[in-house]
Amino acid sequence: MQFMLLFSRQGKLRLQKWYVPLCDKEKKKITRELVQTVLARKPKMCSFLEWRDLKIVYKRYASLYFCCAIEDQDNELITLEIIHRYVELLDKYFGSVCELDIIFNFEKAYFILDEFLLGGEAQETSKKNVLKAIEQADLLQEVTQECQTPPFTMKMNI
Amino acid sequence: MALKIVKGSIDRMFDKNLQDLVRGIRNHKEDEAKYISTCIDEIKQELKQDNIAVKANAVCKLTYLQMLGYDVSWAAFNIVEVMSSSKFTYKRIGYLAASQCFHESTDVIMLTTNQIRKDLSSPNQYDTGVALTGLSCFVTPDLARDLANDIMTLMSHTKPYIRKKAVLIMYKVFLKYPESLRPAFPRLKEKLEDPDPGVQSAAVNVICELARRNPKNYLSLAPLFFKLMTSSTNNWVLIKIIKLFGALTPLEPRLGKKLIEPLTNLIHSTSAMSLLYECVNTVYIDVNTPPLPSLSLSLCLYLSLPPQLCVQKLRILIEDSDQNLKYLGLLAMSKILKTHPKSVQSHKDLILQCLDDKDESIRLRALDLLYGMVSKKNLMEIVKKLMLHVDKAEGTTYRDELLTKIIDICSQSNYQYITNFEWYISILVELTRLEGTRHGHLIASQMLDVAIRVKAIRGFAVAQMATLLDNAHLLTGNMQRMGICEVLYAAAWICGEFSEHLENPMQTLEAMLRPKVATLPGHIQAVYVQNAAKLFATVLKSQEGNTDSTAAQETSQLMIDRLPLFVQSANLEVQERASCILQLVKYIQKLQQKDVEVAEEVSALFAGELNPVAPKAQKKVPVPEGLDLDSWINEPPSESESEDEQPKAIFAKEEPKHSRPRREEVDEKELAKRREARKQEQANNPFYIKASPSSQKVYQEAPGVEHIPVVQIDLSVPLKVPGLPMSDQYVKLEEERRQKERAEKKKKEKKKRKEKRSGRGKKHDSGPESEEDITPAHQVDIVTEEMPEKSSKHKKKKQKKEKEEKEKKKKKKHHHHHHHSDGGGEEAVQNGTVEEEEPLLTSLKNKSSTYQVVVSVIFENKCDSFLKSMEFNVLDSLNSKLQRPEGSGPHDGLTVPFQLPPGVSNEARFVFTVQSIIMPQKLKGTLTFIVKDSSTHEKLDFKLHFTCTSYLITTPCYSDAFAKLLESGDLKCSSVRLEGVNMPFHHLLARICFHHHFSVVERIDSCASMYSRSIQGHHVCLLVKVTVSIDAKCDEPTLLGNVLDEIKQTFSQC
């Protein structure tokens, strides 16, 4: 997989993950172009399109478009499956996920994605394992957060 | 007080976390940019604080802003700070930010190596995990090299969580640092049998990806994978394994035999469409299609599964209600079509059904398939179906697509599948009724093509076309249909040309002369007028046979009445034809009134038949013996007469040969710079006609530079030469070029050698022009054998690009030379921080009385340390000054805009202003730099030579002009003898041409005259004799003296 984009129906980017090194300018150009192309497609159309020398696989969940770019030899259906898994993971994690969850916790969305995919390849096919890893990491985060003095105590100390 | 400040700032830093930022942005929809810029200011403040929590919060916000498209590269170092926090919370944020913001050219990545190594070996598996995840996004070749071992160790970590990440990231490491593959491979192979399925699948993933790049090396793993394939139930893994076999089987056809059984089982048993699709797609199709066509056949045999099975399975996909499966099924079908058209054709009905699909992309796929599926038998049926779709298709794009597809399908391979052309003509006529199509032209060309090439159809075609003409108002009724009126062009021509087939020519003639015709586009009217005349001839012929002569006279009168309408046309072509024909008809009328029979003679005007010519017909005409297109028919004329015929082909033929090496010489950055310079120049050049943007693109992408417009180049030159009126210059240059072309012809026998060298010569005469602006005419004259010392500067750069082994050796030598002559540099060289600089005069630009000289300097770091903070400084002379940015003093150095890792070279450009060009210049300069390891300042002295030669432009001159120049008496004389030169005369000339930018004007046996011109317009003329003496004339004696000295020096060194 070359990259994954999440964007809203209004064309606002919600998440981007690039597995190929590109400069910012190129990324922006690709994003703009793709968002336009995908949004212009009618709802009943199939999820695949050929774009440059890549294949684009996208799927719409509520107001969010999940869009992946894969190489010519990659399997479109499995990519759809990856998108679906990711959505399921988000759903499990946030508890019936909505666009706002991803906007406000965008770093969490990234963490989940990073546990699921690595370097553009699926690293864990078991949903349970992914969620377990995320929960434990979160736990670790909370522990460290408790160790550190929370902001308001600092204020009071002063 | 101080406490208050601290408190205040702490208050502030926590009043906006990520959620607040997001909320803020959403609340400031109108002035988002402004709001974000204040946020960024806040973030900058936060980043300045020491508290890591504040920094992490700021970095987190930046990551969000980065996603929105804001540049956050300035915070790269802060990201590294947050990454190196010991707290997992912050580390996680830091790595996330890094993986989103860093890319290969982010320089702080170099600082992260140790931090990442530390994190990789952290006892906490999540620290390691986060580091691996981050690394997978921003790994660089350096990081890959430095960390390969650490990651390799992690592949055997106790935790499968780490193992699987490590295995996956190894793939990225291999890509960046291929040397790591060999040592890591055994361990990677082990992981194929890892007890943890996740790790196992990761290993399969990596090996599959590797094998796709280079299958040969992985053949030995086939048995292992075979075992995995038969035992695994994980579809993700299976898909990868099948992909892998797809890559391996072409190399080892025996594999195919073994695969039949498990694959067939999979195909029959799996419920996962993705797996089924993979089986069908990869194994049957990707393998069966080129690049290994010869093997594909054997593979099919070995697999010995009928393609029908595969097509049947695809049929299931296509029949599925899921759009995605349908689409993929069609896609795969079109791949099978190439190898097994028969088996696909039997599913025609299904494909045709897909044309009804509501998804346009599916319909287009189906259309693509249909193109390959037609046969003589089913063509009419398929087209009929398509015509139905044309009628009900909504949206002009799709309809146009259908239209072109219909025409494509019918006309493919010379109408191979059409059995009945009457049918085809009526299809075309039907298509003209389409609303709003843009493809009128396409239909028209088909009509013409068929009518001309299929004789038997003409009668029918003419009848149809006559109807079209008669109903022309239907086509041209509204403006939307303007595209379709092109068909009237074809209709009018066919009716006129084959008018003998018309049933009622009079009626058609009348239709063609209707006043409404005048609203059609000019080119169509012109055809109308011309063909009306043809029809007129036919009508006359039939009418004169009758006893009643009034009918014929009435026809003439009709013409005379109607034609004036066209005589008034604004279109020149229409006007011209109409007035011509009008006069003709008037004359005919006169004759008719005298009862003279004219029909025969009028028809004679249009006698003869147009025959189609096969595209390859020309090849069948034998070349007459002794025909030499390159030889002169007459002595080359000295006047400018043959301007037009002067074969530009010379350029076209030679260009590609030049262009190839040239392309390699220039790197992207430089190209961009030059392009910019050229654009500037073109903008200033009143004679330059701006090219369309697309042509520029072509130039940029395609290696064929043969379309560089010659005229444009010549035009740009006069601006460079001050003191002469523009138009004179233009004429002169044109003459010179023409003369030059003749000279080239004469010197044909030299050509081969020249071509070899011209690529290199190109650079040199680039002198004062920006480098693109080199006419091929310029460089062809340059013949050279080898380089003298001064050119080594120029040369080095080229050699690097050309990568010619032999020349590389030479380069070394030249380096030495350079150093000796430069003297000063050597101490620094011996210090161990060896560094090279090569000044290269690239472009001179005229600015009233001062000239700008751009010097490219290549810095090459030959030592083992990293060099940074390089400053380039030159001691200005009165005449030549280094251009420094505004506000800096005359002795300040210029910072070199890059650092040099060991063994790397890079080029920087410096602009000098030069006042007088008649004297050579030597500028002393120093380069200071810091060697990273020792952190000491080092200095390297050098000298920059601005030779007089470098101000000369290779300018062609022809003998007449040359003679006049010498006779004029304005030139001062000087001469020089070259001692101890014993090389062939043409070599000698070649050297002068090459090194001193001269061109040969004329060569007569034992002597040759040569010419060059300085950027200020000084003429320099040489008469070189075999006795190696040079007589020279120039209007500037000082310049001449210096040039001669330089020539002398060149030859004294060889």
In words, what does this structure look like?
- The complex is a heterodimer of chains A (158) and B (1054).
- Chain A is built from 6 helices and 7 strands.
- Chain A has helices at 24-39, 76-94, 99-104, 106-116, 127-147, 151-157, and strands at 3-8, 13-18, 48-51, 54-61, 64-70, 117-118, 121-122.
- In chain A, the strands form 2 sheets. Chain A has a 5-stranded antiparallel beta sheet, with helices on both faces.
- Chain A is globular, with a radius of gyration of 18 Å.
- Chain A starts with a strand and ends with a helix.
- Chain B is of the alpha+beta class.
- Among the domains of chain B are: 421-605; 852-946, Immunoglobulins (Immunoglobulin-like); 950-1052, TATA-Binding Protein.
- Helix content of chain B is 59%, strand content 10%.
- Chain B contains 48 helices and 14 strands.
- In chain B, the strands form 3 sheets. In chain B, strands 9, 10, 11, 12, 13 and 14 form a 6-stranded antiparallel beta sheet that branches. In chain B, strands 1-2-6-4 form a 4-stranded antiparallel beta sheet.
- In chain B, a hairpin with a 3-residue loop joins strand 13 and strand 14.
- Classes of the chains: A alpha+beta (158), B alpha+beta (1054).
- At the A-B interface, strand 2, helix 2, helix 4, strand 7 and helix 5 of A face helix 1, helix 2, helix 4, helix 6 and helix 8 of B.
